[in-house]
Amino acid sequence: CVLCGPGTYAASLGTAACEPCGTGYFSNVSGAATFNECTPCRAGFFCPRQVNAVALPCPRDHECPPLSGAAIPCSWLHHAPPLSPSCTAAPALYVVIAIVVAISLAVIALVVRRVHRRATA
Asked: What residue ranges are annotated as transmembrane (predicted)?
């Protein structure tokens, strides 16, 4: 019988084979007897390898939902603080939307005004 290292568990009782906990899971103990002793990577952390002794903290501007095997970069104009399970829209996104709406309304107003002038001329 062999003692399985961190990030692994005994494949079956009485064998020397150890299985990895797998991506999205970790185990910081030696001697895990079953997969149930592997801990799911919780929200805000990621477990990228097949054998993880610890969960890694999700970096800034990335999202890490539960059972993450990778830190996923936030999309354009979105952000996330460290240890975040999800990205949110950055305030700059709302400014860009407001500017686009204002320009669109100004163009529509100019077109309507020009059409109205031609119709009354």
From this structure: 92-112
